[in-house]
Amino acid sequence: MLKLQSVSSKPTAFKFDYKVILVVLSAVLATQLMGFIEKSKAVRLEQATLAQVSPAKIIELVPPEQEHPEAFAESVPVVEATPTISGTVVPEEPNTNVHTKFQVTYYNVSGITKSGEHTEDGVTCAVDPEVIPLGSTLKITLPDGTVYERKATDTGKAIKGKIIDIYMSKSTKELRQMGRIHNVTVEVLEDAA
């Protein structure tokens, strides 16, 4: 065991060597500063890495169905898409001129239509103007394949929503036998001018 002996009988006061204190403090600050610099470098490196992957690069990635077409030969058709500025891909809008699930009825009351024209067999039909604009030329396809091309020139109290009332110069009895037809497809060939 060691014994400590006092060299002097007076109590000694601690002397601070300012140079030593400065060196120690400098070392501590330098260590903290280095840690901050390393974190800053890591953040900048991460930002630079993210910045290098532009939206165009993301869009250029090859989808699996193009890379391996044989694996997708029997799959559902791919929806066409348009890249946006942000790099996201948005499906293209479907043809808004084709409408499905309409109903067709028939009428034979002749006279002046809502648009001011005379009813005409093979030309006139009544529509809900909130669904199809008056003056539009329509291609109306029934489920059995029958196709009518008509101009939307008339309206009616009972014609609301997805209903088209086709004018025909037939008897009321004949029109009632034709009935109301469901699941009709309507294509707007020409919008109202």
Protein described:
The protein has helices spanning 18-52, 55-60, 64-67, 172-178, and strands spanning 81-83, 89-91, 98-107, 124-126, 137-141, 147-154, 163-167, 181-190. Helices cover 27% and strands 24% of the residues. A hairpin with a 5-residue loop joins strand 1 and strand 2. The chain has 193 residues and is an alpha+beta fold. It has a six-stranded mixed β-barrel with strand order 3-7-4-6-5-8. Strands 1-2 form a two-stranded antiparallel sheet.
Distance between the termini: 112 Å
Integer-rounded radius of gyration: 41 Å
CATH superfamily of the domain at 98-190: RlpA-like domain
Assign the CATH class of the domain at 98-190: Mainly Beta
Key phrases:
193 residues; alpha+beta; Barwin-like endoglucanases; two-stranded antiparallel ribbon; 4 helices; rod-shaped
Briefly characterize the structure.
This protein is an alpha+beta fold and 193 residues long. 27% of the residues lie in helices and 24% in strands.
SSE blueprint:
Layout (H helix, E strand, L loop, with lengths): L17 H35 L2 H6 L3 H4 L13 E3 L5 E3 L6 E10 L16 E3 L10 E5 L5 E8 L8 E5 L4 H7 L2 E10 L3
Parallel strand pairs: 3-7, 4-6
Antiparallel strand pairs: 1-2, 3-8, 4-7, 5-6, 5-8
